[in-house]
């Protein structure tokens, strides 16, 4: 229990720390997308319940984030994907899971991993032609690692790309998915990526990587 309290304190301190700002070009780009109605501002997305699209993103949010995709990384990433691939081609499905501190300290929520695997199986079955992208931020990245282990070889082969942000398991395999399909964004100053329970400002700023993350996905789908 003491470690949970310490983590909560560090998180509170970090959230009061100024976060690195995106580049001017990045700000202008996202502003333009907002005007074009391509900016996804909500913290929840359940597109898998709708029609199949060319690309299906299964996204797991970070610890304590709201909704099922959060707000820090998910929405900017989806916005950039819409810009690169076209909003009519991208479906985003969030992973509903507790995203609590206990899950983080356990190495990722087992329930979240099972849900991510189930959603990936659902996407593969429902939409045989969709390109599947697995993505997660912070504990969500842990969930991707764990969930990918539960996929069959056939479904794993359907995964076109994996994008991880602030990954506590940085450098570890993502199931049987080839490393060439995986892109991890870990700031050199982010101690979460070093396996430490210390949330600094850099861990909260991965939204600035939305555009290069989307470019990576575009190169794989």
Describe the structure.
The chain has eight helices and five strands. The chain is an alpha/beta fold. Strands 2-1-3-4-5 form a five-stranded parallel sheet, with helices on both faces. The longest helix has 17 residues, at 110-126.
Structural features:
8 helices, single chain, 39% helix, alpha/beta, 13% strand, 221 residues, five-stranded parallel β-sheet
Shape: globular
Strand content: 5-15%
**Order of strands, widest sheet:** 2-1-3-4-5
Our measurement of the CA-to-CA distance between the termini, rounded to an integer number of angstroms, reads: 44 Å
Mean pLDDT: 86
Low-confidence stretches: 1-39
Task: Please provide the ordered H/E string of secondary-structure elements.
Answer: HHEHEHHEHHEEH
* Fraction of helical residues: 25-40%
The rounded Rg comes to 16 Å
Structural class, from helix and strand content? alpha/beta
Give the total of beta strands.
Answer: 5
Biggest beta-sheet profile: 5 strands, parallel
Discrete helix count: 8
Task: Walk me through the topology.
Blueprint: H1 2-15, H2 24-35, E1 55-60, H3 74-85, E2 90-94, H4 101-105, H5 110-126, E3 131-137, H6 139-148, H7 153-158, E4 159-165, E5 182-185, H8 210-220
Parallel strand pairs: 1-2, 1-3, 3-4, 4-5
Helix pairs in contact: 3-8, 5-6
């Amino acid at each position: 229990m003491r470690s949970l309290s310490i983590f909560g304190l560090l998180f509170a301190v970090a959230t009061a720390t100024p976060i690195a700002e995106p580049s001017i070009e990045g700000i202008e780009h996202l502003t333009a997308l907002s005007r074009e109605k391509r900016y996804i501002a909500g913290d929840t997305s359940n597109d898998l319940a709708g029609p199949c699209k060319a690309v299906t993103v299964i996204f797991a949010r970070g610890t304590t984030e709201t909704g099922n995709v959060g707000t820090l990384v998910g929405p900017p990433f989806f916005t950039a994907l819409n810009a690169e691939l076209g909003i009519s081609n991208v479906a985003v499905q969030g992973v509903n899971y507790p995203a609590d501190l206990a899950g983080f300290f356990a190495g990722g929520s087992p329930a979240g991993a099972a849900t991510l695997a189930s959603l990936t199986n659902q996407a593969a079955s429902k939409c045989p032609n969709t390109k599947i992208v697995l993505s997660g931020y912070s504990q969500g990245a842990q969930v991707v690692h764990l969930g990918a282990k539960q996929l069959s070889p056939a479904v794993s082969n359907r995964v076109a790309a994996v994008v991880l942000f602030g990954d506590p398991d940085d450098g570890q395999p993502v199931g049987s998915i080839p490393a060439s399909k995986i892109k991890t964004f870990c700031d050199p100053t982010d101690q979460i990526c070093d396996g430490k329970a210390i949330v600094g400002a850099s861990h909260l700023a991965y939204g600035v990587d939305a555009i290069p993350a989307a470019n990576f996905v575009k190169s794989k789908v």
